[in-house]
Amino acid sequence: MAEKLIISISGMRGIIGENLTPAVAAEYGCAFGSYLKMAGSAEGKKLSVCIGTDSRPSGQMLCSSVAAGLCSVGIDVISLGIVPTPSVGVMLKKLGCNGGIIITASHNPIAYNGIKLLTGDAVAPPPESSGKITEIFHKKEFDFAASVDCGKVTFCGDTDETHIAKVLGLVDRDLIGSKGFKVVLDSVNGAGGPITMKLFELLGCDVKGVNTEPTGIFAHTPEPTRENLSGFGKEVLEFGGNIGFAQDPDADRLVIIDENGEYIGEEYTLALAGLYAFSKKQGAKAAVNLSTSRMIDDVAKRYGATVIRTCVGEANVAKAILENDCVIGGEGNGGIIDLRVGPIRDSLVGIALILQLLAESGKTVSQLVSEIGGYCMIKEKFAADKDLADRIMNRAVEIFEGAAVDNRDGYRFDFDDGWVHLRTSNTEPVMRVMAEAREEEAARKYIDTVMDIKDSL
Ligand code: MG
Fold first, then answer.
1. Choosing from 34, 48, 87, 106, which is the catalytic residue?
2. pLDDT digits (tens, 9 = 90+) for 257-301
3. Distance CA 44, CA 228 (A)
4. Exposed site from 167, 196, 197, 426, fewest CB < 10 Å?
5. Ligand 1 centroid from CA 197, angstroms
């Protein structure tokens, strides 16, 4: 069965040549532009939107189509070309745009692409706004401009320099440079290669790039998981690297390989960045989602920092970071947010903070990892419609009696030795179950309990 075009809070995602066509993209551009005109206090000023794409070959086609839609309703478009997702947020602010668009399907296979929307604050539109945009799209209530008022497309080529300058502002360039770090980068032929190689050069690193050409022909399955990066550890070892970094295709996620060529696990990216950020400000705050490892809480305790938990979704984390003036935040999947650069997960920020941590501490990655300590996290998912999901969660509330319960996003049950989080997907009839504990046996026990509940219903 052909998959449906998915329209969610952050935009749309579909399959090129099936449901994500130029016509659909153009009408989505019309809808977003019409919404911006309705929402904005334009006062006669022309509104503008900047657009960046990841490296997928379909990116240019979608960019042109969305741009045509925006121009048709009178919005000026600034095209940024192939850039990381977080770079679009940086440029949106710099150029004073009223909105931003990122053409990316992130870590999904090459057949997919997507159109992600940003408001003028460089965050995803809040639910009521995205609901309105979707309504305009479905009803085709487009506010077309007269011929003389159509928008124009211009190009901006200084994204890399602008973004890199902000990232360099987070760290002591001379200190990092003095260490002569040897680093290896795998950008999976996504958008991150060129800008990240430039960043390493400016930080004085001796760098080896693997899959850094932004061809969009992914050298391996693009999600930066242990299985998909199986050959990367060897590259790090052979180069004698102090550290290896791997990005996803739109370079908002970052994972780390240690100096022994070991994949340390995506949850450590945020724990290490948090360790650095907390060490700079006693009693700081961080915001992370409910599915993120307890490692961040352990690291926070060392410096009297507070960790605020949010519902899953980058927009929820970004909102909490902004509202609570957090020094750092993000998601356990390797997404780091530092507001000094922008409210979007940013692999370049993660790289800079972690190199600074290595430089200041004089420790190796594996030493820092072992000091943080480890947990075992197990993730499962299974088909469940809303009715079954509700029944599973209701039963879990009874069975996990005595646990601390958070039901803002599904149910998270916290115990002394670990936690389990049950939630449904926003885009498909699937229930996700995650459990974490110091010992695998304990984490497995929580997962098995949920699976037993499912089987008993
Ligand atoms: Mg991504």
1. 106
2. 999 999 999 999 999 999 999 999 999 999 999 999 999 999 999
3. 51
4. 426
5. 18
